[in-house]
Amino acid sequence: MRVTLFVPCFIDSLYPNVGMAMVHVLERLGHTVEFPENQTCCGQPPFNSGYWDEARAVASKQIAVFKDAEIILSGSGSCGAMFKVFYPELFHGQPMEAEAKAIAAKTWEFSEFLVNKLGVTDLGARFEGRATFHDGCHGLRELGTKLAPRELLKHVKGLELIEMGEAETCCGFGGTFAVKYPQISTAMAEVKCNSIQETKADYVISNDSSCLMQIGGWLNRNVGSVKCLHLAEVLASR
Amino acid sequence: MTALADPPSHQFQVDANRTSSDTPRRAAVRRALSNYQTARDRTGATFTDWKSARAAAATIKHEAVNHLDQYLEEFEKKFTARGGKVFWASDSKQARDYILNLAEAKGVRSIVKSKAMTGEEIHLNQALLAKGYGVVESDLGEYIQQLKGEAPYHFVFPCMHLRRDEISDLFEKELGTAKTDSPEELTMIARRVLRRAYIEADMGISGGNFIVAETGMISITENEGNARLTVGLPKIHVALIGIEKVVPRLGDLALFLPMLATAGTGQHLTGYNSMYGGPRQPGEIDGPDEFHVVFLDNHRTRLLADPEQRDALHCIRCGACLNVCPIFKNIGGHTYGTTYQGPIGSVITPHFRGLEDWKHLSGASSLCGACTETCPVGIDIHHHLLHNRRNAAAQKPAAGEQFLWKAFAFLMKRPALYKFATKFAPLGSLLHPLIERTMVDPVRSWTDTREFPQAPLHSFRAQFKAHQRAKTSATSNGGAQ
To answer: Residue B472 and residue B461: Cα distance in Å, rounded?
Structure first.
């Protein structure tokens, strides 16, 4: 299958290993991975801030870039939700509505794609450690992703997965919210990270790097011992 | 020169600073709400199918809200036929004036109230007290908040933020009672005061949980029996109810009463569920001589006129969205500065009190969607926060922010420029420690409390390109051998 990656701006610049891990996993399964060079941002920051004209200007570029893709794969539930759920709303009643809906229809979140499109749960991965999983809100509630990442992690040899009490509680990132209301955002991160620590996990795994930037940001400042990993990084390890 | 009043958005930031760092209070509120969540999940599981129940509730409320004119008039006809009076109040002033005039005309001196958020909404107590009437709140939580001189913290659990010892201290200070750690004793202290208030009152004021069009009755749900006494004992009763509370049929309550109890408190059914159809009828032994229903619009019709957010009028004020909201759990109810706190309050307050002044509440959300997921009547709460943000930006764009997003769009529309800009990320990362957490740190509101990740030397696009090159050369080398 020809898989076209949408790599969010923060993965491109800050967490390139996550993108490369996705490439490795997909290539090992025999798929062709493409990365259109002209992609930039999904447009979620201005969209969430209420500036929909500016969001549309950015989004319409991505729609053009991914027009011919067979499968669009996102390593972030949040950006995936932007393509899949919010593009149709953003372009509702606009000239590009049909194109936006077409993009939405072929967009997949990474773990959902592996489990529910390809039917793969065991990637032959090996990763030694005790870990807990964080559900990113957009993946969980906009896309309905809950079981797929756990299915995949269950088959990782050496990995012990312990559910935390606040797995489904927001980490407090929320895009610009994290800097517009840093006090609330940080308090939310603290609640999340306390729950992570209660599991005595060495790793916190998620299918969204934006959440991990927030969780890691708090842990590195306050704890230092728990490491953040994207699901793809765990699945790519041998 | 008069000083400008503190704008709500500033008050919110200041209060959020204080409350989000109050670790013990946050922990206590979280503990209480986690107990609620356990109870709610247990009770919800006893529904044959909670999902279908939600869908049915949403359908009924949709029907009611989209035929408000028809159902409210049906109520009025049936209710007035039994001697009840209905007053239609367009705004809070009309509602207040009607109640004040009624109290004056009837020579009322003291008033007992059962819990009514509509009363908070129109600042009824303040208006009554200013005219010299004695007003006592009879719901225990509301009574405590009244003694404390504070607005309710949560529209279902008014004093959930207070510890037992704080309530005991308050009673000692205001009522002169001895300190106690026993919840039963604290309740008995309040009960002694409140029993007297019911007997002395000439007027009772309540809210209403449901308006039943079919039978011309209002339904009140409560756990303490205080609403029954408030309606039953004084000679005059006034129920102040938002127009959106209507349901078409009596049979609808078979769904809504257990649903409100489950979502609101985790109970199967609230302790007391009463129906009131008007003043005492000939042959009846109790009930008021006069029963007035004040229908409150107060900009609800503004929300009704917005097809996108009209479903916010489905709200049955169960408070479930507050109970699961990570923002509410960390900043508490008072920080919102509104009558209706939490996610639903952030959606409806801009409609009730103006978008420009209250848009910040829609911004103060991570849009996690826990509210929408839990809402028993299927209101698309967190997406409406997005809609409020969009409407606010369209109505009056903030100059600096609009420039920022225009610049952002300019960059993101130009892949070459974007690629060029991202090349500086590693350099930025290298230099950032020099200014980190200083005045000139552009991401200081992040770095004050959290580490910012280091940008590696090679971006994904650079690594992917190298990877593709390596693959191509491997294939061509392989071919040559």
So the answer is: 16
Q: Specify the DSSP element, H or E, that contains B219.
A: strand B217-222
| Chain A contact probe: residue of B324, B335, B422, B464 with most A CBs at under 10 A | B464
The answer to whether B475 contacts chain A (CB < 8 Å) is no
How far is residue B336's CA from residue B12's CA, in Å, rounded to a whole number? 6
Which CATH architecture describes the domain B47-298? Answer: 3-Layer(aba) Sandwich (3.40)
State the complex-level ipTM.
Answer: 0.96
Inspect the interface and report whether the beta carbons of B327 and A188 lie closer than 8 Å. yes
H helix or E strand, kind and range, residue B135:
strand B134-137
- For residue A172, the chain B residues in CB contact (below 8 A) are 326, 366
The closest alpha carbon to B236, from B192, B273, B286, B287, belongs to B287
Residue B101 contacts A, CB cutoff 8 Å: no
Q: Is the pTM of this model over 0.90?
A: yes
- Answer yes or no: do B329 and A191 touch at CB < 8 A: yes
Domains along chain A?
A: 2-116 (no CATH), 123-236 (3.40.50.11810)
Indicate where chain B has its CATH 3.40.50.10420 domain(s). 47-298
In chain A, what residues touch B26 (CB-CB under 8 Å)? 187, 191
Question: What does the pLDDT look like over A21-78, one tens digit per residue?
Answer: 999 999 999 999 999 999 999 999 999 999 999 999 999 999 999 999 999 999 999 9
